[in-house]
## 1
Amino acid sequence: MALKDVWQAPVWQLVSRPWLSFHAWLRRPWKRLPLLSYLAILGPGLIAANAGNDAGGIATYAAVGASLGYELLWMIILITVSLIIVQEMCARMGAVTGKGLSELIREQFGPRWTVFAMLLLLVANGITTMSEFAGIAASLEIFGITRYLSVPAAALLLWWLVTRGSYEKVERLFLVMTLAFFAYPISAVLAHPDWGAVARHALIPSFRLDRDYIFMFIATVGTTITPYMQIFVQSSVVDKGITVREYHYERVDVIVGSIFGDLISFFIIVCTAATLYTRHVTIETAADAAQALIPVAGPYAAILFGIGLLGASMLAAGVLPVATAFSITEAFGWEKGLSFNPSEAPIFYYLFTSLITIGALITLIPGVPLIQLLLIVQVVNALLLVPLLVFIVKLASDPEVMGRYRNGQLFNALAWATVVSIGALSILYVAVGILAPLLGIPL
C-alpha cells in the first residue's frame, strides 16, 4: 500500500500497520484462542503509551533524575494509574462508537466547543512538533552538526518523504533507532543505584513547594499523558475495527502498554539519578544526558543516545503534523489526506506544512536552549491537557454516547480525580512558578 493510500484512511494506520498485518494473518478459525486473539488486538494501547517516550519524554525523565534524584519515582507509579484510566476511556469510546475523539466532540458539543477543542489540539501538537525538531537538533549536535543545518534539512526531508509517499520506507528505520533507549534499564542496573532509596521514594510520596520541583513535576505529567496520545489511541482502535466484542483484549493492551511505557520512564529516572544526580551533573545539552548511558556503552554513550534521540524525533516529527492536520480537518468535515493534491485539500496541506515550518523555525531562534525547550513544551502540554480531559470524561460517562459501556461510578470518580489533580497542579504551577516571582515572594 502506498503512503498516499494510507493517509486516505485514518492517519494512525501508518504506525499500526505491522499490527494490522498481524491481525489479518490471525483471521483463521483458531483466532478464538485467547492468546492469539490478544495478539491480534495488540497495538493501539502499547504504541500510544510508548509515544510518551519521544524526544521530550526522554529529556524530561533524564532531567528529573539528574536534578531531583529518586524523589519523583512515586509520581511515576501514580501517573501510570491515571494514564491507564485516560487511555482506557478513549479506547473504549473508539470500540463502542466507532468514531474518533474529534468527531465525537463535534457531534456532542457542537461547533463552538469543537473549535475550542481543536485549537487546544493544534497548539499542543504544534509545540510538540517543535519539541521533536529540538530533539533532532540536540541529537545531531552530539555529532558536531549545527542546528542551522540539521533542522532545515530534516524539515525538508520529512516534508518530501511524507508528501511523496516515501516515509513508510524509512519510518521502520527510525523506529529501530529508538531501541537505543532500551539501554536505560541495563545502564540503571550497571550503575548500582541505592535500591533501598529507589523503593522508598517509589512507595512513599513526597512534595516540595519549590518552583523547580513543581516545574519538573508538571513536566512529567505533560510528557506522560499528552493530548496527542488520547487522539491516537481512540482513532487507532477505530481504524483497526475493534468492537465491544473484542474490547476486553484491547483493555489488556491499554494496561500492559501503559505499564510498559512507564516502566521505561521509571528506569530512565533511576539511571540518571544513579549516574548524574550523584555527580551533580546538570543537563543542559544532549551530551550531558548521554552520560547516563556510560555504564552500558562506555565512550560510545553519546553516540548511542544521539542515535536513539534522532530516531525518536524523526519518527514523531514525520507522523505528528499529518496526524494533527488529519484530526482537525476530520472534525470539520474538510477534505483530508495525502491522497488528495493541495488544491483538493488546501486546509489539510496548509496545516501540515505550517506545523513543520513553524516547529523548525522556532528551533532555529538563536540562543534557544534545546533541552530546556523540550522541558517547557511538556509543561505547556500539561496545562493544555486539562480541558481535553474534561471532554473525554464527559463523553465516556454519557449514556447517550456509551450506553451500558459508560463509566461506572467508581471509575468516573477516579477519572474526575485525575482531571482535578492535574488542574490543581496546573494552578499551583502558575501560582508558584509565575505569580510568586512577579509578586516578589521568595520560593
Note: The chain has one domain: 3-439.
## 2
Amino acid sequence: MKAKIHYAFVIAACCCLMMGVNVGLTFSCAGIFYKPVTADLGISVGSFGLYMTFMYVASSLMLPVAGRMLERYSARWLFTGASVLNGVALCLMGMMSTLWGFYAVGALLGVSIAFLLYMSYPTLINRWFHTGMGLMIGICVAASGLGGMIFNPIGGWIIGEWGWRMAYYVFGGIVLLGVSPLLALLLRDRPEDVGLMKFGMDKVAVDAAGGKPAEEGITYAEAVRMPVFYALIVFAFIMMGCSTLNLFIPGFAENSGFSLEQASLAAAASMAGVTLGKLMLGWINDRNCTAGLLISTIGGAVGLAAIVSAPSVLWVVLTGSFFFGWCYAGVTVQTAMLTRTVVGSRDYSRIFATVSVALSAGGAVASGGWGLLADATSYSVIFITGAILLLIATLLGLYALRPRPKH
C-alpha cells in the first residue's frame, strides 16, 4: 500500500501558486507595462513607476496588521481574500488613465502583497513543516521567478495584439478565476485542523496534554525586549537594500566598455545565481543556518568586490555577478530562515511580519538611494558600499545566532 502524500505538500503548492502567479504578475511582469502605458498616456516612466513606491509603503504599513490578523483569523481566508484583492487591483490598473489612479491602485496592490509575498510562505511553511522547511521556502520563492518567465512573454504578446489594458485584465482574471478559487479550496490553517502533525514531526514531539504540537521559541512580547530582534530588523533592511544593486550591474558593465549584449550576460549571470541560490540556500539552512548566512552575505560581498576589482575582465564580472545573485536570493530565503532559527515557531508569523517591514522599507529607500549616490560618485562606490554593508549584515546575523539561554 502506497503512503499517502502529506497535506503539507499541498500547502507548499499553494504557496508556490501565490508566489508564482500573484507575486510573479505583480512584480516580475511589471516592467513590460512601463513603455506602453507611458507612451499611450503621455506620462514619464519615472512618474508611472512611482506606483511601485506607493505599493511598498502600503505594504510596509500593512505588515504589522497582517501579522496580528494571521494570529487571530483563518490563514485560508486571509490569503484567499488577499488574492481576490490582488486580482481586482490588477484589473483596476487596466482602467486607470491618471497618475493618482495608478498610485491608489498601487496602494491596494501593496496591501495584498503584504500577505501574498511577505507572509504567505513564511507563515504556512512554518506551520506545516517540522523538517525540510528551508528547502520548501527555497522552492516557493523560486516560483516567483518561474512565474515571470511564463507570464512575461504572454503579457508582451497580449500587449502587442490588444494593448496594455487588456493585458492587465487578463492578468487580473487569471488571479480571480484561477488562483483565488484554488486557495479557497485547498488551503488549511494548521495540520491539527485535519488531524495531522507537521511534516517530519515525530509523535514524541506532540504535547500529550492537548494533543497538539508543542511550539518552541519566544513570544512577540519577549522578542521586542531583546536586542537580537532589532538586529534581525537591521539585517533585513541591509539585505533588501543591497539586493537592489542588481539593477545597476548592466549599467556598470556598459560603462566598463562592454557591449549591451555582454552587459546583458552579466544580468543573466546574476539571475542564475538568484535562481540557484534560492534553492540551495533553503537546503543549506536545513542543515546549518550559519553556513547559509555566510554564503549569502560574504558570497555577495565577494561578488561585488570582484566586479569592482576587475571591471574590464568579462569572466570576472560574470562570476562576481553570479555570486552576488546569492545575496539577492538571501533576501527571501536567508532572512526567513534566520528569523525562524532565532525566534522559533511560537510567534513566528507576527515577529516575521515586523521584520518584513524592514524588507519593504529597504527596497523603497535603496532603489532610489543607490541611483542618487551613483550619480554623485560612481558605480564602483555603490558596489563597495554594498559590500561593506553585507559584511555588517554578516556580523548582525552571527550576533543573532549566538547561543542564548532557552526560553
Note: Residues 23 and 144 are 6 Å apart (CA to CA).
